[in-house]
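Onboarding guide, step 5: your first structure request.
Type a short instruction followed by the sequence, for example:

Predict the 3D structure of this protein.
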Amino acid sequence: MRKNYPGCFSLALLLVSSLATAQPAGVTMEMINTTLPLEGAPLAVAGPYKVTAEAAYGSARYLVFRPTDLSAFPAKDKLPLMLWGNGGCAIEGKRYGDFLGTIASHGFLTMTTAAIEGEKQRQENAADLLAAIDWATAENSRDGSPLKGKIDLAHIAVMGQSCGGFLSIGMGGDSRVGTIGVFNSGVQPATPNAPAAPGPAFPTTDALAKLHGPLMFINGGDRDFMKATSHANYELVKNLPVFYGSRHNAGHTATVYHPGGGEFANVASNWLLYQFKGDKKAGKMFVGKDCELCTNPNWDTESKGLDK
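The system replies with structure tokens like these:
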């Protein structure tokens, strides 16, 4: 099953630029667009909350996904914040709406960038996502906000797919970010004397040493051309809890465009539930030699430093 999406063109431009030393020889648009075949694939598992998707109050830059009924927050449940970096670093997050909605249904506030009418097309950058933290901070205290006092700003995550994964690594050193998720992505060593490339600057493997919280690398199988880079990044992470998973037969876009975001939405949701809500059932997906993904024949996994 293959689909074409607008942001994939941006990703292709990034990969073929001199900036993207991550590009293995012979990467094609067909390779970029490959997904896990939908037939027979696990379905996304929604959480207990219905979800509202809306433009961010006072800012056309962001799309917000949140539980519709907020009465459980914060007395009965937490509402941590998860920022999402789009594939191709595209400022157009609607195509990830199903994926982000599934995560929000488990009791999270998820945000991504949106295009502003009349704005010159460009790629999103870390500053765009960091500014979303400022928005959430203001909204958490704004009189009249449905989110006032309900956002758990002590628990902030950044996740991203492909080029958006570069951004999650770059933001992982921010003291406000508690965990990151890197999907179908990984950074490369700095290249001395490399020519300047168009677009925003992206982190190199030097950024991995600046991370301070748990993280996970999730990618496709051999069809995903970023698999080797993702695993190499995992190997470079020292002294931090880290999980690595490679889903057999998944391509570079894996399941993020499946209904509800598919299996990768389940992985993201459970990681956040485990890290931010202390959900031991969700943690069983990752923890121990008999973890759910570890014993799943469709996955190759490794981990370091996770709770036993």
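Each response can be followed by summary notes, for example: Confidence is low (pLDDT under 50) at residues 1-23.
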